[in-house]
Write a structure and sequence with these properties.
The chain is of the alpha/beta class. It has helices at 11-24, 58-65, 80-85, 88-108, 140-159, 181-191, 210-223, 240-251, 276-280, 289-302, 304-311, 314-323; strands at 2-6, 27-32, 49-52, 70-73, 111-117, 163-168, 170-172, 195-198, 204-209, 229-232, 236-239, 258-261. It is built from twelve helices and twelve strands. The structure holds nicotinamide-adenine-dinucleotide (NAD) and thymidine-5'-diphosphate.
């Protein structure tokens, strides 16, 4: 299969491209704007074609989509805290970008899979969301992702475009930018920097190892029914403080590094996805959290070459703005 993978230079996109090229022999064209989160290094060990461009640019998309059998869209702004500080790029990429991509897929008559998130459903105190649960997003990030999902579905209903939506739970694993909980805590623990836990640390997330999500997306692309949404949830849930304590054990850092800080505004308490529908298609997660977190800590320990340029660049200024203190 020849795939156009938008946002393929980011965390999940690059893991997806690696899985598809390695395990399925796909030809892949990556279209990526290379924002702070997109890095050519993430794909240096994978054969692919690369187009530097934005999904909201019709000319770049028209060029990149030529000859593709399907489009998979990972391109997004993805950090909730940045969406609170500066929402504009979220609106542009998720609303305008998804629209431009849908128009191009419609003109080229190719299937489009939109990668989405459990956050569109909002918070759930008990039980799990199904694909029929109402969308009740809380942050500019999740609200603009929900808007994109609705636009995608409308192109199936209205124009007969073959669309699919995969809503994943919190991913973790290699190549994740260290603004997100797990890589941030690993790198801070390795450096002896404070570990900033929001609120009471009892918010709950449903953790999914990135290669499991990558396989799930590929599975839905091949076997999913057009117009359908598929939740792809992880096998384990955990409070944030449990995650941080496990990272402390694995890195040998000191417990005293934990620092409770001001909570995120509108902070969702708990996410939980029911994944029966995608399991019925034949997918299931293979990596439990206990194993995935060990693999992830090992990867960050070994890949100083990957994170050193990040931790010494734009990230330092972001960190200072966000946390009100400098990194070591
Ligand atoms: P990421 O921030 O690591 O990567 C995003 C990529 O998109 C980067 O390569 C960036 O350069 C690119 N990009 C951003 N705006 C673009 C634009 N306008 N045009 C072209 N490229 C653009 O994100 P990620 O964590 O890999 O997430 C990928 C997708 O998966 C997103 O749609 C996100 O909503 C979804 N998702 C993420 C998680 C998670 O836990 N990280 C969970 C579920 C779903
Ligand atoms: P994050 O990785 O930003 O993912 P999301 O908010 O999209 O689920 O955060 C995961 C959880 O960790 C969330 O409850 C917020 C919390 N968190 C902290 O406590 N401290 C931090 O420094 C970060 C980045 C997140």
């Amino acid at each position: 299969m020849r795939l156009l993978v938008c946002g393929g230079a980011g965390f999940i996109g690059s893991n997806f491209v690696r899985v598809r090229v390695r395990d399925h022999g796909d030809d892949v064209v990556v279209l990526d704007k290379l924002t702070y989160a997109g890095r050519r290094e993430n794909l240096e060990d994978v054969e692919h074609e690369f187009v530097h461009g934005a999904i909201e640019d019709p000319r770049a998309v028209t060029e990149a989509i030529r000859g593709a059998d399907a489009v998979v869209n990972f391109a997004a702004e993805t950090h909730v805290d940045r969406s609170i500080a500066e929402p504009d790029a979220f609106v542009r990429t998720h609303a305008l970008g998804t629209y431009v991509l849908l128009e191009s897929a419609r003109a080229a008559r190719v299937r489009l899979l939109q990668v989405s998130t459990d956050e569109v459903y909002g918070s759930i105190a008990e039980g799990s969301f199904t694909e029929r649960s109402p969308l009740q997003p809380s942050s500019p990030y999740s609200a603009t992702k929900a808007g994109a999902d609705l636009l995608v579905s409308s192109y199936c209903e209205t124009f007969g475009l073959e669309t699919l939506i995969c809503r994943g739970s919190n991913n973790y694993g290699p190549y994740q930018y260290p603004e997100k909980l797990i890589p941030l805590m690993i790198l801070n623990a390795l450096h002896g920097d404070p570990l900033p836990v929001y609120g009471d640390g009892l918010n709950v997330r449903n953790w999914l190892y990135v290669e499991d999500f990558a396989r799930g997306i590929g599975h839905v692309l091949e076997h999913g029914a057009p117009g359908e949404v598929y939740n792809v949830g992880g096998p384990d849930e955990s409070t944030n403080i449990e995650v941080v304590r496990r990272i402390i054990e694995l890195t040998g850092a000191d417990e005293s590094l934990i620092e409770y800080v001001t909570d995120r505004p509108g902070h969702d308490r708990r996410y939980s996805l029911g994944s029966e529908k995608v399991r019925a298609l034949g997918w299931e997660p293979e990596v439990r959290f206990a194993e995935g977190i060990e693999r992830t800590v090992d990867w960050y320990r070994e890949r100083r070459d990957w994170w050193e340029p990040i931790r010494s660049g734009e990230y330092r200024a972001f960190y200072e703005r966000q946390y009100g203190r400098a990194l070591s």
